[in-house]
Specification:
The structure holds two protein chains of two kinds. Chain A is an alpha+beta fold. Chain A is about 50% helix and about 25% strand. Classes of the chains: A alpha+beta, B alpha+beta.
C-alpha cells in the first residue's frame, strides 16, 4: 500500500475523533497526519513496554495488538486494538507516569506513530489539538465502559457474547487461554460457553 | 453555595494530579459557577440528568447508584457505585450528543450540585487551563474503571470481595449485599456461597 494511502487512513482516523469544520482545519489535520511515521510490527513485538519512557500515539493501519496491565507481577489482558483504532499508553500520555501496561502485537501489523512531544507541540499550538486529546480520552472512557459491561455479566456465555459485540474478531485474534483470562472465567467454562454459542 | 460545600468542590479540583497553584483563579471561577445544591431522597431517580443534560454534576453528600440497561437481562443493572465528592455526568450526551444509556438513583439521601456546560464553555475561553482539569478529572474516572476491571476479571468471587474490602473500603462498608453482588459481577447465590466460605 502506498504511503499516501496510509496518510489518508490516518487522516480519516483522526477526523473520526475531531469534527473538522473549515478547510483550514482540514489542512491542519492533513499536516498532522503527515507527521506520523509508519512501520511494520511482527507478532510478539511491543508497541510500548514497562520501561518505555516517552509516549507515542499509535494508529493501527492493519493487524491487531493487545494491552496487558501488570498487577502483583501478573499480566492481565486489558483490551484489544484492532485495525483503525488509536493505541497509546495512558500512563505516559495522560497521567505522566511510568507505564503500568505493555502492548504486544497479536497479528502482524502496520502502525503509524507520532511521538508525544510532537503531539504536545501540536496540542499547544493548534485549536484542534485539545479537541483531539479530549476525544481520545473520551473514547478510552467509552471503551472501558463497554468492557465493564462485558465483565458485569455473571455467566460465561453472556461475557463472551458481550465481548463479541465489541470485538467481532476476538475468537480469531487471541489464544483461548488468554481469552479465558480476559473474560475472567475458567478455560472449561469458556469451552462450554463456546460450544453453547456454536449450537445456537 | 454554602462554604462547607464550596470547600468540598475546591478540595476536589485541588486534589487533581494536574492542579497547580496558578490554576487557583480558574478553580475559584468553577466553584463560583456551581448552582445551589439540591437534595434528593433515598431511592429517587436523579431526573435532573434527563436528556439532553450535558452539565457536570458534583455529589456533595450521600451515595449514588449508576444504572444501565443490561441487554442480557430484562432488568436494569448496577454499573457503578458513586461515593461523595465525585463528579458524575451523562457520558452519552456529553461525549456523543446521544440519549443517555445510564441513569442515577440515590442509594442514600443525596445532595448534588451542577456546573452548566454553557458556563464551562465560557470559562474555557477565559481560562484555557480548565481543559487540563477536565482531562485530569476524566483520567481519574478512567483509572478507577481500569483498576475495577482487574477485579472483575478475577475468576474467584472471594478474591473480588477482598479487592473491594481493601481497595474500595468506603463503598464496601456502605453497600448492601445485593448491590455488592452487582458491583463485583456475580450472582447473589455466588456471593452468599463466598461469604459462607469466608466465615468458615
Amino acid at each position: 500500500m502506498s504511503k499516501d494511502k496510509d496518510y489518508e487512513f490516518i487522516q480519516e482516523g483522526l477526523s473520526l475523533h475531531i469534527n473538522v469544520g473549515s478547510s483550514d482545519e482540514q489542512d491542519a489535520l492533513r499536516q498532522l497526519s503527515r507527521r506520523f511515521t509508519i512501520r511494520t510490527y511482527k507478532e510478539g513485538e511491543e508497541l510500548w513496554n514497562l520501561t518505555t519512557s516517552s509516549g507515542q500515539l499509535h494508529f493501527i493501519l492493519s493487524g491487531a495488538f493487545a494491552e496487558y496491565l501488570i498487577d502483583a507481577r501478573i499480566a492481565h489482558l486489558l483490551r484489544f486494538y484492532p485495525k483503525n483504532r488509536f493505541a497509546y499508553s495512558e500512563d505516559l500520555i495522560l497521567y505522566s507516569s511510568k507505564p503500568k501496561t505493555y502492548s504486544k502485537c497479536l497479528v502482524e501489523a502496520r502502525v503509524a506513530s507520532i511521538p508525544a512531544g510532537t503531539l504536545a507541540e501540536y496540542l499547544m499550538n493548534e485549536q484542534l489539538g485539545s479537541r483531539l486529546l479530549t476525544s481520545l480520552i473520551e473514547l478510552s472512557m467509552t471503551e472501558y465502559r463497554n468492557t465493564t459491561y462485558e465483565m458485569l455479566q455473571t455467566s460465561g456465555i453472556h461475557r463472551i457474547s458481550a465481548a463479541l459485540e465489541q470485538f467481532p474478531d476476538v475468537l480469531d485474534l487471541i489464544p483461548r487461554k488468554e481469552l479465558a483470562d480476559y473474560l475472567g472465567i475458567s478455560r472449561a467454562s469458556l469451552f462450554r460457553s463456546l460450544k453453547q454459542i456454536d449450537n445456537g | 453555595m454554602a462554604k462547607a460545600l464550596d470547600k468540598l468542590v475546591f478540595d476536589f479540583f485541588r486534589g487533581l494530579p494536574t492542579y497547580t497553584s496558578d490554576m487557583e483563579e480558574t478553580v475559584q471561577s468553577i466553584v463560583q459557577s456551581f448552582d445551589a445544591p439540591i437534595t434528593k431522597p433515598k431511592g429517587s431517580i436523579i431526573t435532573e440528568l434527563s436528556p439532553p443534560n450535558k452539565d457536570f454534576w458534583f455529589l456533595c453528600e450521600g451515595y449514588l447508584k449508576e444504572i444501565y440497561k443490561n441487554p442480557f437481562h430484562n432488568q436494569d443493572s448496577l454499573f457503578n457505585f458513586i461515593p461523595p465528592s465525585s463528579i458524575f455526568v451523562n457520558e452519552d450526551s456529553l461525549f456523543y450528543n446521544q440519549r443517555p444509556q445510564h441513569y442515577y438513583k440515590a442509594y442514600t439521601d443525596v445532595r448534588i450540585t451542577s456546573f452548566s456546560n454553557e458556563r464551562f464553555q465560557e470559562l474555557k475561553k477565559k481560562f484555557p487551563a480548565i481543559i487540563k482539569l477536565y482531562l485530569s478529572g476524566t483520567a481519574e474516572i478512567q483509572k478507577n474503571r481500569r483498576s475495577r476491571l482487574l477485579m472483575l476479571r478475577m475468576p474467584n468471587t472471594i478474591d473480588r470481595i477482598e479487592w473491594v474490602q481493601s481497595q474500595r473500603e468506603d463503598l464496601y462498608n456502605k453497600m448492601d449485599r445485593v448491590t455488592l453482588a452487582q458491583y463485583i459481577g456475580v450472582s447473589r447465590a455466588s456471593l452468599y456461597r463466598a461469604f459462607d466460605k469466608l466465615e468458615e
